[in-house]
Amino acid sequence: MMQSSSIQSGHPDNHPGKQTLLLVDDTPENLTILGQILMPHYKVRVASSGVRALDIARSEPRPDLILLDVMMPDMDGYEVIHQLKSGIETQDIPVIFVTALSEAEDEAKGLELGAADYITKPVRPAIVLARVKSQLELKDARNILVNQNQWLESEVERRIHQNQLVQDVTLRALASLAETKDNETGAHIKRTQNYVRVLAEKLAELPEYASILDSATIQKYTRAAPLHDIGKVGIPDAILKKPGKLDASEWEIMKTHAKVGSDAIWRALKDEEDLQSFDFLYIVMDIAHYHHEKWDGSGYPEGLKGNAIPLAARLMALADVFDAMVSRRVYKDPIDINETRRHINANSETHFDPRVVEAFNASFDEFLAIAARYPET
Questions:
Q1: Does the domain formed by 182-373 have CATH 1.10.3210.10?
Q2: pLDDT tens digits, residue range 291-332?
Q3: 8-149 is classed in which CATH architecture?
Q4: For 153, which of 60, 127, 180, 298 is 20 to 30 Å away at the CA?
Q5: What separation in angstroms does the CA of 187 have from each of 7, 154, 175, 227, 371?
Q6: Considering the entire predicted model, what is its pTM?
Q7: 30: closest CA among 64, 56, 69, 4?
Q8: CA 13, chain centre distance (Å)
């Protein structure tokens, strides 16, 4: 009986560059006839059973097209194609049924199972060659389309990533404007940015926040955090860098930095036609404008209370206070980190959103790790 590896000189390696066909039939004479028709044009492999056909189809190199007999012992062609179409590695290999069955319902069953075409026995060389060529051309066209789509997807991802990098660099550049004016440092920006991320991720574990704080929103909050104090560029150096406590008039000027920051972003944004495309900048404005609001309504600049304060700003409020307390400034020494924790807990429901304080306590070790990762120089 004819073996499954090749038909004489029809082994795949004997026709480099040609497409490979797998012929499946339990009758050697039928394999010989098809092989003589196809070998001058294609690499040809054969299998005399359904089980062997599946083994070949699942191994490399995979055939480009399978010509499959229906009536075979042990495993018929219908079961073979069912298994081919069920496997990820074989589901895209086109199959042409080659069979003596000629009833319409037989053809319909094969097509329903995923056959690309149907050739009846006895075969005619011209028909076989035409059908095989047609299916291989269709397969090539599909492959080209898939490759183009994959390239387009990768190119879109590349450009999105590139734009993301440009945006991040721009944000850091803007944040650095505030740094040059203020006593705070780049490490402060990295720490507070990561504190906001950790708090948001911890809140996202709660049912009431799961739908609000998806991964995309958390990323936006994290990226927006460095611009929380961008408005300090509008505050005089004498106030920003004063080593002692600010007097009442100086403090009133200092408090304007929240509105100065959000107003600057709004002026750049307001003339754009599609404002919905700039939802990220709205988050930046929320953080810049409201991160000094307090849960009990005693904050500034608007005196908002409770959940009326945007969530991103409530996260930023705790992150900013924590970092300010544990860091050295020209006007103060750093405060012990455990004392800072006690202060934050003591001001839950007054200064801070109590759920954000809970998230802070649950992620305190992560706060410590972030503080150690980005120390002051």
A1: yes
A2: 999 999 999 999 999 999 999 999 999 999 999 999 887 667
A3: 3-Layer(aba) Sandwich (3.40)
A4: 60
A5: 71, 34, 12, 14, 9
A6: 0.59
A7: 69
A8: 41
